[in-house]
Amino acid sequence: MIQVQELSHAFKIGKKGKEKEVPVLKGLSFSVEEGEIVSIVGRSGSGKSTLLHIMAGFLKPDTGTIQIGNVKTSNFNEVESSQFRLTHFGFIFQNFQLMPGLTAFENIELPLKLKGENKHVRRKKVTDLLQHVGLTDVQNHYPNELSGGQQQRVSIARALVTDPPIIFADEPTGSLDSETEQDILLLIQSLNQTRGITFIIITHDDTVAETADRIYRMHDGELTERGAYHAI
Ligand SMILES: Nc1ncnc2c1ncn2[C@@H]1O[C@H](COP(=O)(O)OP(=O)(O)OP(=O)(O)O)[C@@H](O)[C@H]1O
């Protein structure tokens, strides 16, 4: 479903005229099947976030191609990239990135408002998702009135509310204690199974990586597959 081929990217650093090229991705190729949980594991600075930014269309690769379904997304211009992102991708971040002035319900509802969905559809979708992620009782709480795990559940529900087929999760449990981490990983697995959503999890943590159906290890700008694990 997602095919990445021969992807390379280097950053230019230093003063104008004296720039140095720092290669980060060096011709890496890999694929993700529809409905899979894939993790990309690697040390800090190995290029995981760069790969995610390129796959999500925030950054152009120097060379290489990305194909999602039958669409070659690496050929997109900025407008096409952002339109594709809105309909195909959801994002989960380490630090949740919730709007502090909105309740849990309103945070989850926001992408639907931006999409112009009517109130009735919004209420139904948000109510269903609140139940699915176990937050019905705290739906009127603001982010600072929620635990880290609850905030991450809100951000997961927000990522899912527009029904994207692919979710990118960048260190989704990086701010959580190990018990809450397990709860969130189980939630991701349950959403993957019940809704068929593809998850791409970026992490430096082997325990998190092993939740996935398939693990890729990032090392020196290349990816190698590490086999299948089902640790939970
Ligand atoms: N905008 C940029 N300009 C120059 N160099 C960059 C830029 N972004 C990232 N880099 C460099 O590219 C390399 C890979 O960074 P990247 O953030 O992709 O790694 P990572 O594996 O996601 O790390 P972490 O786990 O710490 O987030 C690092 O050496 C970093 O310093």
TrEMBL record:
GO molecular function: ATP binding
Pfam families: ABC_tran (PF00005)
Location of the ABC transporter domain: 2-232
Keyword Transport appears in the UniProt entry: yes
Species lineage: Bacteria, Bacillati, Bacillota, Bacilli, Bacillales
Keywords (A to Z) from UniProt: ATP-binding, Nucleotide-binding, Transport
Name of the protein in its database record: ABC transporter ATP-binding protein
PANTHER family in UniProt: ABC TRANSPORTER ATP-BINDING PROTEIN YTRE, IMPORT ATP-BINDING PROTEIN
Gene3D superfamilies: P-loop containing nucleotide triphosphate hydrolases
CDD domains named in the record: ABC_MJ0796_LolCDE_FtsE (cd03255)
